[in-house]
Design a protein that fits this description.
Blueprint (H helix, E strand, L loop, with lengths): L3 H9 L7 E4 L18 E4 L3 E4 L22 E7 L2 H9 L5 E5 L2 E3 L4 E2 L14 H7 L3 E4 L11 E2 L14 E3 L3 E6 L2 E7 L5 H7 L4 E2 L10
Parallel strand pairs: 1-2, 1-5, 5-8, 6-9, 8-10, 12-13
Antiparallel strand pairs: 2-3, 3-4, 6-7, 10-11, 11-12
């Protein structure tokens, strides 16, 4: 299976030259550390930064440089700072080519639930709803099952919805999936994971093509 760094590495392979990319809180932030050599992208953080770099080495953190999740980060040459109103103006105007988000649930039609668990205190939805409504492409980085071993890839989300029919791809510790009209299409298996294990862990509609390759990380 993949750990959170493996999930981030696989998602980083989806980046393309010239993309403006927003990385959500959690596993998605790690993608900044694994941008493929030769690929130039601009990372946007909704708290007001364009040109985010990888996480700083230990001991070199600058407390004034943080991402939307309040983690210390670095900047690249030519980066710029601005207020959140301008940041969300960029997002709502469709200037973000790709958004990578975490999720608590994803449905086989591309719905996402990632901002609230009923009965638990939350800080708010953050920028998730703007991002899923405006980004041109959305990839979800998430755990395949919850702590009880229940699938988080579902026929329909049970938690409050963030966005409808917006997720294009999902990467979990078990594999890489594309969402189509037929449901979750398994494109790659995580190293050491069988298709049968993926079937047993997926509650939503799952399409398993012949000879699904093992993921290269």
């Amino acid at each position: 299976m993949l750990d959170k760094h493996g999930i981030a590495k696989r998602i980083a392979k989806e980046l393309q030259n010239g993309y403006y990319v927003n990385l959500g809180i959690g596993i998605p932030t790690l993608v900044a550390n694994y941008i493929p050599e030769g690929v130039e992208v601009v990372l946007q953080s909704e708290n007001g930064l364009l040109g985010m770099g990888p996480f700083p080495p230990a001991g070199e953190e600058d407390a004034d440089l943080i991402n939307a999740g309040k983690q210390t980060i670095t900047t690249i040459a030519g980066s710029s700072f601005f207020d959140s109103a301008m940041s969300f103006g960029m997002i709502r105007a469709g200037k973000v080519d790709l958004t990578v988000l975490g999720a608590m649930e994803v449905s086989d039609t591309g719905d996402i639930a990632n901002w609230k668990i009923p009965g638990k205190m939350v800080k708010g939805m953050g920028g998730a709803m703007d991002l899923v409504a405006s980004a041109k492409n959305i990839i979800v980085a998430m755990q395949h099952v919850n702590k009880a071993g229940e699938s988080k890839l579902l026929p329909a989300c049970s938690l409050p919805i963030t966005g409808l029919k917006c997720v294009k791809k999902v990467v979990t510790e078990l594999g890489f999936f594309e969402i189509t009209e037929e449901g979750f299409v398994l494109r790659e298996r995580a190293p050491g994971v069988s298709t049968e294990q993926i079937r047993q862990s997926t509650a939503g509609r799952l399409v398993v093509p012949d000879n699904v390759p093992e993921m290269e990380i």
